[in-house]
Amino acid sequence: MHTTTEYLIWDKIVKSARQRVDIKDYGEKAESIAPEILDQLILHIIVAFASGEDHQTISTNLHNELQHIGIEVYEETIDKIISDKHVVFSAEIYATYLTFSMLEDGYTEQEVLGYVTDLLDSPKIH
Predict the structure, then answer these.
(1) Please, which domain of life does this record's source organism belong to (predicted)?
(2) Would you give the distance in Å from CA 125 to the centre of its chain?
(3) Does domain 4-121 have CATH number 1.10.287?
């Protein structure tokens, strides 16, 4: 069961990523996907990249998830959609990796939320 703070961490990451894509660019099928499903798919992509999965594995898993919920799409189409997401979602992928690492290292969820919020709301170049 997720806590409220954990939900806020993942919500922050997904909302940030959602601002980086225009769903209209992906056609009518994509536009018809319910926002909560779309958020889950975005989170899946980000978590997969943060966990070190390769493009092919992410594409196959996403294809299977979409088929499972009744959305038919070619795997090649999914390949194209995720081809640049490791770059487009780089801040969110890093925030996810940071979340996993910090929680594993014993930081509180509130501390993690603070770091993730700082990272995504005011990124700095060093």
Answers:
(1) Bacteria
(2) 22
(3) no
Q: Which two tokens stand for residue 28?
A: 């009518």
The dihedral sign for the CA sequence 12, 57, 1, 110: negative
For residues 46 and 13, is the Cβ–Cβ distance under 8 A? yes
31-89 confidence digits (pLDDT tens): 888 899 899 999 999 999 999 999 999 999 999 999 998 888 888 989 998 999 999 99
The two structure tokens encoding residue 31: 């536009």
The domain limits of the chain are 4-121
Question: Two tokens at 112?
Answer: 């993690």
pTM: 0.90
Q: Please answer whether residues 116 and 9 qualify as being in contact, where contact means their C-beta atoms are separated by less than 8 angstroms.
A: yes
Q: Is 74 left (phi over 0), alpha (psi -120 to 50) or beta?
A: beta
Residues 75 and 60: beta-carbon distance below 8 Å: yes
Structure tokens given for 88: 């487009």
Coil, strand, or helix at residue 21?
A: coil
- Of 42, 29, 109, the closest CA to residue 71 belongs to 29
